[in-house]
Specification:
This protein has 106 residues and is α/β, with parallel strands linked by helices. The protein is 39% helix and 15% strand.
């Protein structure tokens, strides 16, 4: 089973200033429309950038609807031994629907 975090759970953890490592695996043009902060690493670039990530921090992987971030999560688990990963369920689209109605959607 894929470890997930709902948008509301992530908001609560961010509000509590929990040190989450946010990795957005969308493309730069998507990031420009809307983002939740963190670091932009497009899915295709993840193999080259994985070594730069902090394995000790809880890492939330983010994309538009949660599919690419799920792929990224499995890649980091299987190929790089990450154990502290969460997929943002529903991606930034769900964030806009469930947490912030003013958040841009596309």
């Amino acid at each position: 089973m894929l470890p997930e975090i709902t948008p509301q759970q992530m908001k609560e953890r961010l509000d509590q200033q929990e040190p989450l490592q946010l990795i957005d695996v969308r493309e730069p043009q998507e990031w420009e429309i809307c983002n939740l902060g963190g670091q932009l690493i497009p899915l295709a670039d993840l193999p080259k950038q994985a070594a730069n990530l902090d394995k000790d921090k809880t890492t939330v992987l983010i994309c538009h609807h949660g599919f690419r971030s799920a792929q990224a999560l499995m890649f980091l688990q299987q190929r790089h031994g990450f154990t502290n990963l969460l997929n943002l369920k529903g991606g930034v689209h769900a964030w806009a629907q469930e947490v912030d109605p003013n958040f841009p959607v596309y």
